[in-house]
Automatic annotation (TrEMBL), chains A, B:
It comes from Streptomyces mimosae. Belongs to the DNA repair enzymes AP/ExoA family. This is Exodeoxyribonuclease III. It comes from the Bacteria. CDD domains: Nape_like_AP-endo (cd10281). The record marks 227 as: Important for catalytic activity.
DNA sequence: CGTACCACG
DNA sequence: CGTGATACG
């Protein structure tokens, strides 16, 4: 059994002030992947940096206060790797991988973009460099009799069911045809990964994992499903349960994203 | 009778959220001089911009969110002037003058400095340009049978009694020998102004008008007296009462400065 | 709208 | 330590 949770915390220091640690203490997962930590380890309190009972590995961004991913594991990982080989994104705080027995788990924070800005170009460069890595990772895992799970904020909604207002967002970053096509490659023959939440919930809208802080997006459930756990075939087959932990109320929210939890047999 | 209050609000928008308007509604003054407004009029709510019963004139800084002085008057001023003729400080949001019958009242925010930095040089340039203006203002007022009152944050403690830790601050901006000597010139033969709070309270420490937000400065009354009302001789003679309105508790504070109120006959 | 940074005080 | 600017999301 392996239970993995992934959540974009939108600033770990802010999240810790609003209930992240209480949430973590009730979290039964074996592995927790965090994105948008937005802090270096030295800026975190000891309790937040290494919660009791967890091993914690961080990959902060070179730019202070930006991005940053982490992985918490109940047992010490066998190996830890930062980045995926693309020089531009080596110190971007966007990819961290840990090896556990039989399985490699990664925390990913794919850049968010905005059409017509350099940030969209950066997002596309990331996507272009990352897909070959995913292919290589899957092959390497298969060759070594291992599985891989890429958790995180992919900043792309794949299909119309993956966001509330898909019509209005056809021209917006996060739901562009080329972004959706790229995710289809990750999930198709080329990548061979499975979106395990969608695999277990094929016929519903959402479940959304992100709601803008602007307006009443959360209250109206005007959300996007952009946080995924993408599993190699052998691992995907073992998926028993997959769910998104939407906060009960706006007041209980400690991030604009919700945790995504998957239980593997 | 003329009652004048002066206070550095340290951001009028923040002050308004913490009790400034409640304080103002209990304020019996005829004129209120504000410093560090840190906003343009358009950024203020109508209620804050023009409180009921007041006329309000603003002199914002060209740099957004910096400095900014204002004067509130119960009756419409006869004239309003921004700046004191020094080109460098014309749009600095540091000086605003209003004419009321028989009296000119000014709101001043003298630059704060830091030894060894360009900001200290700026402070000194301001002082150098401002003293001749004060001399000219006094002469012009006298020639026209008027009085003048310069209220505000002068960012200099004059004597040892004007700050709690004078020994430790001998080398710090705000209590440098040259700054103190400059204030002595304002208050001596050259300027001819009277520090009316000190005139009415000659033998006490303080009363302080500013306490740093750092540490427990307010609770320990580790303050500085840097906010003054400086009056021309005829007006100084009419001073009946002068006091500093220290907030009762840290929780009641809506600025790091306290209002200075003077009643003239 | 919220979390960070920074400059200023 | 707090205000407000800015970048990012």
């Amino acid at each position: 059994m392996l239970t993995v949770t992934s959540v974009n915390v939108n600033g770990l220091r802010a999240a810790a002030k609003k209930g992240y640690l209480e949430w973590l203490s009730g979290c039964a997962a074996d592995v927790v992947c965090l994105q948008e930590v937005r802090a270096e380890e030295a800026q975190l309190t000891e309790e937040v940096r290494r919660p009791a009972g967890w091993h914690a590995r961080y990959a902060p961004a070179a730019a202070r206060g930006r991005a940053g991913v982490a992985v918490l594991t109940r047992r010490e990982p066998d190996a830890v790797r930062v980045g995926f080989g693309a020089p531009e994104f080596e110190d971007a705080g966007r990819y961290l991988e840990v090896d556990l027995p039989g399985t490699t788990v990664a925390s990913l924070y794919l850049p968010s973009g905005e059409v017509g800005t350099p940030r969209q170009d950066e997002k596309e460069r990331f996507m272009e460099a990352f897909l070959p890595y995913l292919v290589k990772l899957r092959a390497a895992a298969a060759g070594g009799g291992r599985e891989a799970l890429i958790c995180g904020d992919w900043n792309i909604a794949h299909r119309e069911a993956d966001l509330k207002n898909w019509r209005a967002n056809r021209g917006n970053s996060g739901f562009l045809p080329e972004e959706r096509a790229w995710l289809s490659r990750v999930l198709g023959e080329e990548g061979g990964y499975t979106d395990v939440v969608r695999a277990l919930h094929p016929d519903q809208d959402g479940p959304y994992t992100w709601w803008s802080y602007r307006g009443r997006a959360f209250d109206n459930d005007t959300g996007w499903r952009i946080d995924y756990q993408m599993a190699t075939p052998g691992l995907a087959e073992r998926c028993l349960k997959a769910e998104v932990e939407r906060a009960a109320s706006h007041a209980e929210r400690w991030s604009d994203h919700a945790p995504v939890t998957v239980v593997f047999d």
